[in-house]
Specification:
Belongs to the PdxA family. The chain is of the alpha/beta class. Helices cover 36% and strands 17% of the residues. The longest helix has 17 residues.
Length: 323
């Protein structure tokens, strides 16, 4: 396996746990997974052995004994647990810088720490629903999908942050087909799986049970999957979701495309809560992030668990090294 370049880690919301877990991740990984943090060094935990760098190429050497920082001056302070909208422009610039560096090849991948959307709206008029949509806009992509991945399971929700009552309206044949295609392309291109096997969960209980518990499977989901099979894609389903995630079932696929948020996130968070990683598929570069938020309630207390960020950095490294 070739050694990829360093990973660009955007700082996220500086008043949350992002700075703390970034330093803990560096302490755990050091030179085994070189990365550099993009943000204001003032926001890091006191006593962090900071090494300011001017280019990503310096990160690999620096991280052996120092925390590599590509510095950006922020306008505000970082009182733990209280977001300062004055920092919004700096948070956005950190993300933009990470994307720019991966697009120029100076960084191997982008890893993003959690942001606080309200602070970005209040401080900079941020107009995107979240990280993923902003990254898609920076990359010039109109459609990307969210994958949650761990060593035990990969899941992709076709619809995400909408009410359950809206799912049957938003879930269309075109949306589901595009989600499956982007998932397959991501598994091939970023995970190195030459012939990905994708299972599709049913929308209704028991995948509709022949129309007794819903008609979407009969009306169009079955036909779409058969069509995609005829085009050469290894896709199966729709499968009853209640029998799709146990150990024996998981060996039969590389990823599951689910119909809505909780159908995807409940199983992976149950199986591997601390090690789940958010991966954005459909971007022209690698992007991972920890699968949690800013955790203002414990910011600065030393309690924050860095495991998800560590896994996000390690997965980004493996994806960057994938042939």
């Amino acid at each position: 396996m070739s050694q990829p370049g360093p990973i660009a880690l955007s700082c996220g919301e500086p008043a949350g746990i992002g700075p703390e877990i970034a330093v803990k991740a560096w302490e755990a990984l050091r030179s085994s997974c070189p990365f550099f943090w993009i943000g204001d060094p003032r926001h890091l935990p006191e006593g962090t052995p900071v090494k300011e760098i001017t280019a990503p190429s310096a990160a690999a050497t620096a991280c052996a004994d120092s925390f590599p920082v590509l510095p950006i001056a922020f306008a505000g302070s970082a009182a733990r647990g209280t977001a300062d909208p004055a920092n919004a422009a700096g948070v956005i610039r950190s993300i933009e810088t990470a994307v720019q560096l991966v697009q120029t090849g100076e960084a191997a991948a982008v890893c993003t720490a959690p942001i606080h959307k309200k602070a970005l709206i209040d401080g900079a008029g941020f107009s995107y629903p979240g990280h993923t949509e902003f990254l898609a806009a920076l990359a010039g992509r109109s459609r990307v999908v969210m994958m949650l991945a761990s060593d035990r399971l990969r899941v992709v929700p076709a619809t995400i942050h909408i009410a359950l009552s809206e799912v049957p309206k938003v879930l269309t044949p075109a949306l589901l087909q595009e989600t499956i295609e982007i998932t397959a392309a991501g598994l091939r291109g970023q995970f190195g799986i030459a012939a990905p096997r994708i299972a599709v969960a049913g929308l209704n209980p028991h995948a509709g049970e022949g129309g007794a518990m819903g008609h979407e499977e009969l009306d169009w989901i079955n036909a779409l999957i058969r069509q995609m099979q005829s085009e050469g894609l290894d896709v199966t389903g729709p499968h009853p979701a209640d029998t799709l995630f146990h150990a024996a079932a998981r060996v039969r696929y590389d990823a599951v495309v689910c119909m809505y948020h909780d159908q995807a996130l409940i199983p992976i968070k149950t199986l591997d809560f601390d090690r789940g990683v958010n991966v954005t598929l459909g971007l022209p570069f690698i992007r991972t992030s920890p699968d949690h938020g800013t955790a203002f309630d414990i910011a600065g207390t030393g309690q924050a668990n860095p495991t998800s960020l560590i896994e996000a950095l390690k997965l980004a490294q493996r994806m960057a090294a994938s042939p």
